[in-house]
Amino acid sequence: MNKVKLLAGASAAALAIIAAIFHVEGGYVNNPNDPGGPTHHGVTQAVAREHGYQGDMRDFPKELAQQVFFEDYILKPGFDQLIALSPAVGEEAVDSGVNAGPAQPSKWLQIALNSLNRRGRDYPDVTVDGRAGPATMAAYASLQRVRGRAEACRMIVKLMDAQQAGHYLRLAGDNSTYETFMPGWTINRIGNVPLEKCA
């Protein structure tokens, strides 16, 4: 499938999430404390190279960044299915994935779901494997049925934010160079999906 057609198949909610990520990520950066190295529109040089881009990252096109976000951070981890169930939870997962890798928010979602099923009374535990597949989506749909769409969304966003904050605190505690990024992560990544979006 050609890349333009693939992106054209993105839902309006997915495109809005990508636009929000661009707003947070900004343009070109090359912070010596960032192990990701040269980054443009939130895409690291290594990821750009995986997608066939060989030019200077200062010239990395926004259109290719959109495609990278859609393929690597929405389609591959299965977050397109999550966006269909709850755009706000989908945004939380995709945004977190861009910053921490897509497996990490998948695990946070799975841990949150397992903690909310009342010891399996509402739905079975899911395997915490970092792959948000059909069992994870079924568990989230069950949580929606039990708690209502808005409340399920608020509960998951809160628990994913809490885990993300803990992740950043561990990174900064283990490696003081990451402290450079803590203010930005705290301002732009924790609580950046307003609970009002769950309504």
Outline of this structure?
The chain has 199 residues and is mostly helical. Helices cover 61% and strands 2% of the residues.
What does this protein structure show overall?
- With 199 residues, the protein is an all-alpha fold.
- It has two domains: 1-76; 103-192, no CATH class.
- Helix content is 61%, strand content 2%.
- It contains ten helices and two strands.
- Strands 1-2 form a two-stranded antiparallel sheet.
- A hairpin with a 2-residue loop joins β1 (39-40) and β2 (43-44).
- α2 (12-25) crosses α6 and α8 (134-147) crosses α9.
Average pLDDT taken over every residue: 91
Task: Tell me the major beta sheet.
Answer: 2 strands, antiparallel
Global Rg: 17 Å
Distance between the termini: 35 Å
- Give the helix proportion (percent range): 55-70%
The structural domain count equals 2
Helix/strand class = mainly alpha
- Widest sheet, order of strands: 1-2
* Beta-strand segment tally: 2
